[in-house]
Each structure stands twice: as structure tokens, then as C-alpha cells.
Specification:
Elements (H helix, E strand, L loop, with lengths): L2 E7 L3 H12 L1 H8 L2 E8 L16 E2 L2 H5 L4 E6 L7 H10 L3 E4 L2 H18 L3 E2 L10 H6 L7 E7 L2 H13 L3 H10 L8 H4 L2 H15 L18 H10 L1 E10 L6 E10 L11 E8 L3 E8 L3 H17 L1 H9 L18 E11 L4 H11 L4 E6 L12 E8 L2 E2 H12 L4 E10 L2
Parallel strand pairs: 1-2, 1-4, 2-3, 4-5, 5-6, 9-16
Antiparallel strand pairs: 7-8, 7-10, 8-9, 10-11, 12-14, 12-15, 12-16, 13-14
Bound molecules: L-homoserine (HSE).
């Protein structure tokens, strides 16, 4: 039987999971790939720490060139994460004639064009299913089964850490910092969890989804993003009163001519399946013009779900399926037609506003005056009596305003003006509300 030799670069949480599948599921791989898939080398800067798995010492190396120069290795799995040295290593492997598999969304989002141009130039492929939503086969589905469609929209929970934190806060009343620590302990969070909670990880994944859904190369830094840092326990209570839950949503909306892209904490109706996605689960709803809505749900982070996607890519690569699909789609090809993005000021949607205000005559009048001036209509308003400490000698209260749809530019100007009203204390916390 033919043998395919594979190397693994990076033996962290995910790398260990991949090694485990390659060593323990060899029968599954033989029947799926029709050949023996052999883990020939594992390269990491630390090959002495016990990872709780028995690995043959002769395949362990700290020397990246020994992987590049080994002609018997045809596929390399990059799992070191981050931009460098991952970028240099991937380019080196492609130039050495190896196909690459990666779970590195930051690398693909930042250097997609360079990597795919190099792969095309070398006649090699890059597979990256695990880069978005871990175990959920969303990228492959967009690249194959949904190709008949014009994608109208994508609404997605793509960061397991944020979903875990928000779920813990909502369901168990856990405080924010404890929930972050628990997400790290469970292996969901990035090495630097700031990239999860500030929305960076989500915009990078949205960039990749946009490339596949719309053939659109987007600079991830240009996508408007708000993280979950300002979401407070009190917001879950008010959202519940209004009939919503709070989720960090990545949105690509192509229902008008131009595509609207953003990541932000969003109130999602309790009846919407996205609101029922709990813990570290991810979900993606794609609406295609032919298929209508399709909904994907599963674990988007963690060792074995992510390793499952990587080994799926490995089988596709060995069988040559990746080369066919990537070749047809011309991913990150600068000569491809560019879809048009909507100016963020022209986004149009509902908002939730939370502000701490003095409880005295005329305050709501002043606030609604600012909203009215900017053509923003109030849909609901909540104020409860409070036992909060006094500010400026007056007892402050939370004022919650849910608005009808408005233009983003008007909403941002209105928030700025409201924050300058003397009876409004601190920042106005704004979240989007999904229609
Ligand atoms: N840190 C990511 C998350 C996992 O929490 O979803 C890998 O993308």
C-alpha cells in the first residue's frame, strides 16, 4: 500500500490532538485516504515536555530544515500559531514542494495573498478548515456544496472563548475575569486572550469567511469591531427583559449591493437559534439565494474538535481534493474581481444603549432630544429604581434604550453627544440588536 509521510510543526494543545489521531486512528485514515498516512516528523522548539502522549523519539526534532529537506515528506501541518515564524516556515515548506495544512487564522487573514500566491507558484496547496470554527466544516461547505448560491448573509458566533464567557456570565452569574480564566484553563482561549475578547480573532475569521463566500479580500483591521470587555452582568438582565440574549456576532450582510462587515456584541432574540448557542460552541448561519438559511453548530475550539478538522484537511490533501477546489476558487488572488464593501457610516440597524444617568427631571428629555436630532427613534426604554452609590450627590440610575433602525453614522454622533450631557455619567455602552 502506498505511504504518505506527514510532518507536524508545533506540538501544543492542537498538535498533540493531531498526533493522537494520526497514531490512534490509522485504520480510519487508511480507509478514508486509501493509503497509509505516517507521522514522519514532529518539530517543536520544546521536545522534552511530557504532553501525556507517547511519541516515538526518533521522529522528534527541533530542526525545521530537517523537515523542509526531507524529500519523503509531502504534507506539513503548521500548528505553531501567530504570524512569525509561522509565515516563514509555511513559505519554506511550500517552496520545498510540500502541501501545507494550517489552523492559523491570523496567518491566513494577514498574509493570505502572499501564501496563496506562493502556493500557486509552487504548484502546492494550503488547507485551512480548522482556522475558522474548529470542528465545524463551514469552510469546506462554502467552497463546495454551497457554490451554486449567491451568499446573502452570514451571521456567526466564531469565538468559543467569548461565547463561553458570555454564557457563564448569563447562565451562572460568573464574573468576567473568572470566566476568562476558566476559558484559558479549558484550552479555548488564544495564547493572548485579549485577541479573543477584543474581537480580533473574530474579525480575522470573518475575513476568511468573506473570502470564501464573496471572493472578497478584506484587510481584517478595516472591519469595525467591538469586543465583549464592556458587557456587564446588568446587560443580561435588561436584554432578558427585552426578550434577547447577548452574543458576540460576526456579520457579513450582502442583502444590499454593498457588503456590510462587522463584529460586535449583539442582542439576539431568544427565539433565534443563534441565541441558544452556549458555552464554547460556535455557530454559523449562512443564507444563500438558492438554499435559503443553513445553520452549522459545533465546537469551534479545543484540542480534538480542531484536530478533527485538520485531519479532515489532511485526507482531502492526500486525495488531491484540496488542489482541485483551491485551484478553481483562486483564493486570495489579487486579479479576482473585488466585491464592494459598505461604508461603515451607512450600516443600518437597531441598537441597545446603556447609560448611567442622574435620576432627575429633564434627563430623558435631553437624551431623547439628541436621538431625535439624529433621526433615531426609540423602540423601548427601561429604568429601574437603583441602590447604586450616589454620583455628584444625586442617585444615578441605569437608563436602557432600544432603538428602531438607524444609520450608523447618526448613532455614533448621537452617542458622542449623549456622553457630553452633564447628567450622563461615563461611556454610553452600545450593542447592536439583530433584527
Ligand atoms: N481562541 C479561539 C476561540 C479558538 O476561542 O474560538 C481558536 O480559533
Amino acid at each position: 500500500m502506498e505511504t504518505v509521510s506527514v510532518a507536524l510543526i508545533g506540538l501544543g494543545t492542537i498538535g498533540t490532538g493531531v498526533a493522537k489521531i494520526l497514531l490512534e486512528h490509522s485504520d480510519v485514515l487508511v480507509s478514508a485516504a486509501g493509503r497509509q498516512v505516517v507521522l514522519a516528523k514532529i518539530c517543536d522548539k520544546d521536545i522534552t515536555t511530557n504532553r501525556g502522549i507517547t511519541l516515538p523519539s526518533e521522529i522528534m526534532t527541533t530542526d525545521i530544515d530537517s523537515v523542509a529537506n526531507d524529500k519523503s515528506i509531502s504534507v506539513v501541518i503548521e500548528l505553531i500559531g501567530g504570524l512569525e515564524p509561522a509565515r516563514t516556515f509555511v513559505l519554506k515548506m511550500l517552496r520545498a514542494g510540500k502541501n501545507v495544512i494550517t489552523a492559523n487564522k491570523a496567518l491566513i487573514a494577514q498574509h493570505g495573498q502572499e501564501l496563496f500566491d506562493t502556493a500557486r507558484g509552487c504548484g502546492r496547496t494550503i488547507a485551512f478548515e480548522a482556522a475558522v470554527c474548529g470542528g465545524i466544516p463551514i469552510l469546506g461547505t462554502l467552497m463546495t456544496s454551497l457554490q451554486a448560491n449567491r451568499v446573502k448573509s452570514i451571521h456567526a458566533i466564531v469565538n468559543g472563548t467569548c461565547n463561553f464567557i458570555l454564557s457563564q456570565m448569563e447562565e451562572n452569574g460568573t464574573n468576567y475575569n473568572d470566566a476568562v480564566k476558566e476559558a484559558q484553563r479549558l484550552g479555548y482561549a488564544e495564547a493572548n486572550p485579549a485577541m479573543d475578547v477584543d474581537g480580533t480573532d473574530s474579525v480575522q475569521k470573518l475575513t476568511i469567511l468573506s473570502q470564501l463566500a464573496f471572493g472578497m479580500t478584506v484587510d481584517w483591521k478595516s472591519i469595525p469591531r467591538t469586543g465583549i470587555e464592556a458587557v456587564d452582568a446588568i446587560d443580561f438582565r435588561y436584554a432578558r427583559e427585552l426578550g434577547y440574549k447577548i452574543k458576540l456576532l460576526a456579520v457579513a450582510d450582502a442583502s444590499s449591493n454593498d457588503i456590510e462587515l462587522h463584529v460586535s456584541p449583539t442582542l439576539v432574540r431568544k427565539t433565534d437559534p443563534l441565541s441558544r448557542v452556549s458555552d464554547a460552541f460556535n455557530a454559523v448561519r449562512v443564507i444563500g439565494d438558492c438554499v435559503g438559511p443553513v445553520f452549522f453548530h459545533g465546537l469551534g475550539a479545543g484540542r480534538m474538535p480542531t484536530a478533527s478538522a485538520i485531519v479532515g484537511d489532511l485526507i482531502d490533501t492526500v486525495l488531491g481534493r484540496t488542489a482541485i477546489t483551491a485551484g478553481a476558487l483562486q483564493l486570495w488572488n489579487e486579479n479576482k474581481r473585488e466585491a464592494k464593501r459598505k461604508d461603515p457610516n451607512e450600516f443600518y440597524g437597531k441598537s441597545y444603549l446603556r447609560m448611567l444617568v442622574d435620576d432627575q427631571p429633564g434627563v430623558v428629555h435631553n437624551i431623547s432630544g439628541v436621538l431625535g436630532k439624529h433621526k433615531i427613534s426609540i423602540a423601548s426604554m427601561i429604568q429601574h429604581e437603583t441602590t447604586e452609590p450616589k454620583q455628584n450627590g444625586k442617585p444615578p440610575v441605569f437608563l436602557i434604550i432600544a432603538t428602531h433602525k438607524s444609520r450608523e453614522g447618526d448613532m455614533l454622533e448621537a452617542i458622542n453627544e449623549m456622553e457630553n450631557i452633564s447628567s450622563v455619567h461615563g461611556k454610553v455602552v452600545r450593542m447592536r440588536v439583530l433584527d
